[in-house]
Fold Chemotaxis protein methyltransferase.
Amino acid sequence: MNARHDHSHQREFNLEDREFRFLVSFLSRETGIVLSEHKRQMVCGRLVKRLRSLGMRDFAAYCALLDSPAAGAEVEHLVNAITTNITNFFREPHHFDHLRHQVLEPRLSQSPKKPRIRIWSAGCSSGQEPYSIAMVMAEVLKPSEAWDALILATDIDTNMLKRGADGIYSAEDAAHIPENYRKRFVRRLHNDSDHVQMADELRRLIRFKRLNLHEKWPMKGKFDAIFCRNVAIYFDKPTQRALFNRYADMLHVGGMLYLGHAESLIGMNDRFEASDKTVYRRIR
Ligand SMILES: C[S@@+](CC[C@H](N)C(=O)[O-])C[C@H]1O[C@@H](n2cnc3c(N)ncnc32)[C@H](O)[C@@H]1O
């Protein structure tokens, strides 16, 4: 295909003001994700594939489908296409040191029978974050059978959850895992030297589930720590404020909330105090 052809395709799928405004408000209502004008090209680019596979000629038809009772499964495709899923193993490594020293190790010194520990990775994307948590957990809580320990890993994007549940990553991704953990928890795949799989020992610790943070949450028990990193940044301030308050409700007093490097609770919620850089402890 030559460049002229490429151009005509882009023109064919021009995202007009009216349709862009419809998509912005649909997504904000559905997911809390706020898209500003400078995301218009990105939205257009990511949805063109959907229009093609639905055999649609323009965005007006696509918006009409979303606005109709037949929208059904298309909402999931739309959300999967729009979310930004960038992640990595041991992203912001100081959080994992903090988890080890401030959450897990202190629990070792209190020793009720089979202590219960629950950690939530909210907005876990393709799973590198919950697997990083699981590696620290498996290393600290020995032997693991002596603990009732689980990680809940949730995301709105069903494609990402499938990748997390499979636990298969490129060797390039796995290079971000510190060597001591890599040796212990990462398995080679037969006939595929470009990919690796996470050990069953880790996979047993994690439950991957679809959860839209913008909706009602089904969980009953409280958490010792919640990781919600690089997720709230896509929401507006009132949505962030409400979300952080709901996280306070879901944490034990003394539990920790880990946020992304560009996110902060300062001036947002007085139920937390700072514990470390972008780590907050629930105090009330
Ligand atoms: C940039 S990734 C962050 C991944 C990981 N927490 C990290 O910091 O590496 C943001 C994730 O938030 C998810 N997300 C966005 N809106 C959401 C919502 N309303 N409910 C649940 N997950 C959402 C996206 O699907 C995406 O996988």
The two ends are 61 Å apart (CA to CA). The chain has twelve helices and ten strands.
